[in-house]
Amino acid sequence: MRTRHGDAMLLSEFVLTRVVEVAVHGLDLADPLGREAGLTPAAGDAVADLLLGAEHAPAADKLGWSRSRFLRKATGRELLNEAEAAQVERLGIRWLALG
């Protein structure tokens, strides 16, 4: 398919971009309203796979965070403390640069 900017993109990739948008902006809306984020397990896994690469996504489970917390940390919505940063480093997790 073609995006609105004229770029060629697989439909599956386009759908994934929409899942990312809904997931992370859902966090942005839920937090100030004091509500639980409406993040489904499938959406959280899809975004984690995108951010880490499917082969590294299991390392994120070793952090012990919920998917919504992981997404907050991975997207800079919640800062890592020193212990978390060290654990992320030990696990070899590298964040995908968004922007």
Short structural description:
This protein is mainly alpha-helical and 99 residues long. Helix content is 58%, strand content 0%.
Question: Can you describe this structure?
Answer:
By secondary structure, the chain is an all-alpha fold. Helix content is 58%, strand content 0%. The protein has 5 helices and no strands. The chain has helices spanning 11-33, 41-52, 57-61, 67-74, 82-90. Helix 2 (41-52) packs parallel to helix 4 (67-74). It is globular.
Key phrases:
99 residues, 0% strand
| Through-space gap between termini | 23 Å
Poorly predicted spans:
none
Percent of residues in helices comes to: 55-70%
Number of H- or I-type helical stretches:
5
Largest sheet: none
What layout of secondary structure does this protein have?
Elements lengths: L10 H23 L7 H12 L4 H5 L5 H8 L7 H9 L9
Helix pairs in contact: 1-2, 2-4
